Amino acid sequence: MEKDKRFNELPSEPETVNEETVLEETAEEESLADRVKVMSPGRLVLKRFFRSKLSVVGLTMLLALFLFSFVGPFFSPFGETQNAGASKWVTSKIPHDMVTTDKDENGNNITYHLLEVSDPYQVSSKTKPDSKNWLGTDQYGYDILTRLMYGGRVSLSLSFIVIFAEMLLGTVIGSISGYFGGWVDQIIMRIVDIFNCLPGLPILLLAASLLDGWGIPPRQKIYWLMLILTVFGWSGIARLVRGQILSLREQEYMIAAEATGISVRHKIFRHLIPNVMPQLIVQATLGLGGIILYEATLSYLGLGIPFPYAAWGTMINSTSGASGRDILQNYPNLWVPAGILIVMAVLGFNFVGDGLRDAFDPKMKR
Amino acid sequence: MIKYIIKRILLSVLILFGVSLIIYVLVRVKPGDNFVRAKYAMQLAQDSTGEVEASVERMENTYGLDVSPVRGYFKWLGNILQGDWGESFIFSVDSGKTEKFYSLTVNGSTEYIKYENASEIPAEATGTIERAVSTKSVIRIIYSKCGVSFVISLIATIFEFVIAIPLGIISATKQYGVLDYSVTVLAMMGISLPTFFLGALMLKIFSIDLGWFPYAGLLDPNSGLPKLVDNIHHLVLPLMTLIILSIGGLMRYTRTNMLEVLNADYIRTARAKGLSERSVIYKHAFRNSLIPIVTMLAGILPGLFGGAMITETVFSIDGIGKAAYKAVVQGDIPFVMAYNMFLSVLTVIGTLFSDLMYAVVDPRVKLGD
Amino acid sequence: MAQAKKDSHYISAKESRRIAAENRKITRAFEKKKARRNVNESEYLTKMADDGNIVEFDNLHTYFYTDVGTVKAVDGITFSIPEGSIVGVVGESGCGKSVTSLSLMQLVQGPAGQIASGSIRFKASDGKVYDVAKMPTAAMNKIRGKEMAMIFQEPMTSLNPVFKIGQQLDEVMLLHTPGATKEQAKARSIEMLGLVGISDGERIYNQFPHELSGGMRQRVMIAMALECNPRLIVADEPTTALDVTIQAQILDLLRDIKTKINGSIMLITHDLGVIAEMADYVVVMYAGRVIEQGTAKEIFDHPMHPYTIGLQKSKPMVNQSVERLYSIPGAVPNPVDLPNYCYFRDRCDRRCPACNGDYPEIRTVAGTHRVACHLYEPEDKGGAK
Does domain B139-361 have CATH number 1.10.3720.10? Predict the structure, then answer.
């Protein structure tokens, strides 16, 4: 039994020799059959993926983030925009005591003092971490830990939706371009060129700033952000898919598929797309990190998710502007955790993407 | 060869045409609103001069707001081609020209008046002064703000290449070693760090807590240091931020290419000749791993001249990046449009340049196919 | 239970990491040993067992330390290359013949691939005998390309695409001949190009590899190998990637060259036809071991091992009509986990009870003819006759 364990594992050395052996072996007949264990490609990829320490670290970070962002709020006693401080209204007398007197129904004198009552959040804002607010409260008196959870929800769900839309758009356009070739390809590729030529962040900023100009309500803004990120993000994927399809089209098995006389749609969706999938998955995973960065940057610049909704980038934004230096210097609990979470998310996606790339690539050593 | 270049240039023009269309559509897709806001910003900016009506008219003219979007686009495009890229709402720079004013003493107070024609100058004008003329032309603003950004980016880019390429090569030759792992992890962290967060951390640690470097700007008149030294002192943190962020990507790219090359058959041939590992790597492998790095050149040009938006903003450096950010936030549409076009032109030129460079570094590539 | 059974086929990530950690230790020790500088010659100088040989493989083991276990690509082979002869090494894909040749050149892809034990004795032109298996890389670099040269299977990818042919040829001469000038190197390179049948060497000298055809590139590779008058040329499937007509030309060329430089050739191929045409001695390898060896005549006229017989039967003959070519069933076993009985047993059509026993030892059957098969064991050991 001990011996059998390693039997069918690919000795994935650069040596061509061993690979061929295994290939033949999978088609092995009875006599050696008890020694031969066929592993599905999916499983092989998974095994290779989990063998890399970095991908496991990345996956763990992402899982932790997901739990934190999507499950965390259920355990938090505070809401996203709920004042976390002790509900102590601070009252103070106005310097020149304004007093009015009146008589009640019994004819007694009543003196009314006009008091100034400050907004409650002003009271509990920027508190240091304590047992109640584990990371303290921010300048509006919201619980930072809770805000981080909601910010994570926004970032993670936004990036997944955007990447999904980008993939969909990019794959469809890219495969049409690659499959049909000719003038269709020419036109589509020129359009892709144009989108590739647009400067990334500045054009996003322009588009996002126009949203403000249009007076989009804050609640809807996230959907518009998704739209913008998708519109300016699909071209890379289209190019990738098109390149892949072009090279796949030349492969013998495509000619064989053609010879069987199957339909175009069938050819594209059953034979070409599945072959592009590994690269697409890798690209999507790495792209997720990029989108989180873009979203955070937009929020940081005040053009992303608007207040009062929480976003990681916005939380770091507190370090800029008039009171920036004070916060930078004295309240690291306001912005450092958000930064760490952004890094964790992006790093997690990058590690996982990298691990997936290695796992999908049969040529990779180890 | 020439034919190929001409073809590529024509294609680039086509691409820029598309880019300009997208930018114009973005701005005009909901007619009115953007420019209403813009006009408002402009009124604020120019209230003091009392030239509101004229400049609003000029703006409508420049952007073709007075006609239908389609005609407006071509009108705007025509203006761009003639060098009229519009006027910024919020910036103005020294145009380098001066104007002559005549001082007149009327009722005991001195006024300075400019006369178009010499014949109009009254005899009682007592003297003249020259004043620098400021301009709001976005082209001139971009031109004047580019310099600082260029210097910073150039230094950062040089450091980036000098550090990242050797690290990538060493990492590849020692694949899966301790060094490779640590370099990989560090590179990934560099890629994953948001600029503004790293910048804030840098400021917090090195400027506020340790007090080693100044907090903002490029020059502190009270520092008592020579100007150049003071500049460098101010630039350390932004440069470090830029370098840390950019190294990771290039290093990973070099490593991947190098690994691919090191597995190639001709590397085995080189070893079979009896060449030392050094020559194998730095002569045979390095030249080949350079080929894909040429692709990176396409992005260098916009990187050099386009400024680093976030870094400049975080460290309050008065370069084009910070200007662009300010323009975006304050709704300076003419500047933002011009800035985007400017970057696109640079990208197109950069891409063309990198394609030509391919032919230089890879003898297999023949231009004109 | 079912789950446990299913999982037992695969190594767990934990186990794989454990293996990887062990491998790192092992391979690092090997790499360190190879990377040493200024090693005393006595450490790797040795003596030939038979002075008539130029190369002697003695119980050579070359392993690949992979994360899934140790691949014994070459597992204890012993044979020698007599001076002035062509020795053909033949076998299926994956039998370890390429690794054998790479071991001889110390070109096994590290750090995973290492010569684990055994020795490879090589007699240089100055009479010194080196043990390649023990040599540090620095010392090896002095004889690689000079005393022994290698021609690879893929002429299309074996030349560096960014350097001109001339540069790549000159390099060898400049490297191994102290005091050689560029002009001398160029003259030598053009001469060598002439030797391999390229008449307009001057023009080829200034061309890039991609401008040449596959056959031309293989000629250039041969010219490169000849640059320093090596005593041994290792040709690893030199004709496999070429057109049939070009194949014959290249083989002729190799034979010519051998007489011209008075050296030896180790010819690795899976093509029995090539072997029959070229080789003086033949070594048949299977799953990392030598199963039969002898002179070409012995192997072709009296093949003994069932595998050799199978190989010959599977080769098409020109004036023989057969209904169907013979094919040996099955494939070479996985080298990660070889059985403890004869590796060929499960594919063998002449199995006998003894085959269930240990792996058969290689024994001399007649003259230089040696075979590793239970069929030819003396009666008393239970061999079937």
Answer: yes
